[in-house]
Specification:
The N terminus and C terminus are likely disordered. The protein is mainly β. It is elongated, with a radius of gyration of 38 Å. The protein has 2 helices and 19 strands. The strands form 4 sheets. Strands 3, 5, 6, 8, 10, 11 and 12 form a 7-stranded mixed β-sheet that branches. Strands 1, 2, 4, 7 and 9 form a 5-stranded antiparallel β-sheet that branches. It has 2 domains: 171 residues, Immunoglobulin-like (Sandwich), CATH 2.60.40.10; 99 residues, Immunoglobulin-like (Sandwich), CATH 2.60.40. Strand 5 and strand 6 form a beta hairpin. Helix content is 12%, strand content 40%. The termini are far apart. The longest helix has 32 residues.
Amino acid sequence: MSVLHTFRRLGVLLLAATALHAAAAAPAAADDPGWTAEPAAGAAARPGAARPYFYLSGTPGTVLEDRLALTNTTDRERTITLRGADAYNTAEGAFAVRPAGPAATGGPAGTGPGAGAWVGFGSGATVTIPPRTRAVVPFTVTVPPASPPGDHPAAVVATESGHEVGVRIHLRVSGPTLAALTVEDVAVRGRGPAAVVAYTLVNRGNVALAPELAIRAEGLFGEVPGRGARALPVELLPGQRVRLTEPWPGAPVADRVRVTLTVTAPGGALAAGIGTRWLVPRDLAGWTGLGLLGLGAAAAAALVLVRGRRRRQDPPGDEPGDEPPAPAPAPEHELTGASR
């Protein structure tokens, strides 16, 4: 059955006019928009559980379908606008969607429109929902014929009166996949229990990664406590770069450390990065600086005393650099050519 025929049959909007509950609704909180957006229940949902996001996959050139559920929990009518949006990682690794506008889209490498532009709602991009009603809105994802394989992160964004709710679309285009990443700009900050390791992760492949990180460290006299492997609270999207920090409570207070970060991810991704730093206690650094300053002042004072004493002990004329006057030259005799 074609997508257009499906839209004609279902209509732009399917309203489930059954009441949610007979009990009176409590006043909405200040940050509660009074409505929700989520994937409609389907075959992918577990019994009794909602889908956390849309998961779609297909070959280039295909049209994929799914449905969004909008629920009005208030006693007044709601008008909600729907759109597709590209998804990306913030600098700290959070999942975010790009704002509306022709210049706000960008693919994994940020060079052109991404999968957000593939999402369509037909004539149902604006939905009016009666009070206490649940609406199911169908939409399509049209994969361009030349789409590269791998993950193409996107989202459906519902907006009303400046309030936005995004529902993620995990879209994979079939074809060869590559899980690859690099670790860059490793640096140690702080010392002792307050130390952290800062680093940059870059997804060099075409699939989203769930990385794990381990820290190994060596000091001047051997290995020092590092940190075992643990899952990072970030999903690294293809082509994205994030700057993260990892607590390192086992860092020494005073040492020269060489830190090796090893990052792995499902699919065979493996990368490592190295950073070095001298760790010197603040108190020790302060006292060392004062000691060097005092030592320099004492050396200067001693040099002045020694020069003053030498000047008092040396006889006049014997100062360094004084030389005896040169003897007067003998008078020259005039030669007349006649011998005497």
